[in-house]
Amino acid sequence: MEPSSPRNNRTTEFHPFSTSPPHMLAFHLAWLSLFSCFFSTFSIPPLIPVIRRNLNLSAADVDAAGTAAFVSSIFSRLAMGPVCDLVGPRVASATLSLLIAPIVLATAFISSPTSFILVRFLVGFCLGNFVANQFWMSSKFSTSVVGLANGFAASWASMGAGVAQLIMPLLFSLVKSFNVPENTAWRVVFVVPATFQAITAVLVLVYGQELPRENHENSKKVSSKPNESFLEVLFSGLMNYRGWILGLIYAFSFGVEMTMDNIIAQYFYYIFGVNLEVAGTIAACFGLTNIFARPMGGVVSDWMAKWFGIRGRLWGLWVVQTVAGLLCVSMGRVDSLGGSIALMCVFSVFVQASSGLTFGIVPFVSKRSLGVISGMTGSGGTLGAVVTQTLLFSGDKFSTQTGISIMGLMMIVCSLPITLIYFPRWGGMFCAPHFLHQVPTHEQHYRLLVPDIEAMAMAMAND
């Protein structure tokens, strides 16, 4: 068992290769469950060239289905935050996964463009588990390592998209090698993501543990605030402008990442003429960099906080996301296969790191509405995917290369509102903190972990 604060039971250490309960076991269950959701959601895109032939799908049908998958996850992420506040991330996560697993299996039975779009829409709901994932980590790890924990949990989970890009074409080829007709082979392989998602949900229910009951009881004894209703918690989160700004930032970091996951295999298949397996392998490289890129964002966020407090976290996020935008612009202007692959890999590192940096800030926005703020930020990511998918990659208005470059410019512009985020206790990018010692009552809900915040304030006072 890891060392933890007696006041809040959040561990002060993070060992990603440990499975000791309750903290590290919860970490592994959280990322594995979300991994299965990403795998399920992005198991369809790498097979679209085959599915499109068999179902006679038009380009408009494929675009609409891709957008539908993101639209549904906006609603599920918005709802998941308050649900986590009410029932906890373990039950919320497992319930959603179990509800969606049969729909993933139903992909094998689609027979028309309408059913194809509907299945993608419904499967996209499972990405709401991202909010439960981040909520769970924020309630398990102290502020000294929360950026790192959030980064690792989300990044290892996001690899599900890359693994799906790699595995699904290979499974399709394997099944087809047994003389199974093409129209049957692609349907059979969807048994894999559906079963995997159901198994991980059961593991979360059986072995997962949220904050111990005694911790909730102690929190009630320590807290001087009266119990708040669901609407009060929801309203508190929605009225916090920092949550809206982080949602916008996340829209053009994680949202861009999701859009790339949706289009990248088709991009290399159609633009550069590579075969289905090669296109899937290249696309997998984009998603698999999550194994280190997003955690690196968390590490950078925690390291910057160690020396510069929250102001360091904000500056780190702005710099990394701006660089990611510049790389995205460059990728759209390169015509060679090798150059596109190289820029894609570097770009993936920075865009995924910026997502980790974003959730290095989220736990500090509001203690009482952590779930709501997580939901607002997380849904911003999928909203960004809807916007970029619809504006830039639907129809014939822009070529794919031009769309990628414009998306990079949007990333750069939309990173600027970070400069408006200000915490009276800790300051902002250009402003010093206003409260260095005593925190007024109306500001106390910003405080996530009292011992860590006190240490941070002392460090800032010495800067």
Your description of this structure?
The protein is mostly helical and 463 residues long. The chain has a single domain (23-209, 228-462), classed as MFS general substrate transporter like domains (Growth Hormone, Chain: A, Up-down Bundle). Helices cover 70% and strands 1% of the residues. The chain is built from 20 helices and 2 strands. A hairpin with a 3-residue loop joins strand 1 (422-423) and strand 2 (427-428). Helix 13 runs antiparallel to helix 17 (337-358). The two termini are 35 Å apart. The model is unreliable at 212-226 and 439-463 (pLDDT under 50). It comes from Hibiscus syriacus (Rose of Sharon). It is a multi-pass membrane protein.
Summarize the structure.
Belongs to the major facilitator superfamily. Nitrate/nitrite porter (TC 2.A.1.8) family. The chain has 20 helices and 2 strands. With 463 residues, the chain is mainly α.
The strand count comes to 2
Question: Which strand order spans the largest sheet, edge to edge or round the barrel?
Answer: 1-2
Main sheet attributes: strand count, strand direction, barrel closure: 2 strands, antiparallel
Which strand-content bin applies to the residues? under 5%
Q: How many angstroms separate the termini?
A: 35 Å
Counting DSSP H or I runs of 4 or more residues, the number of helices is 20
Top-tier CATH class: Mainly Alpha
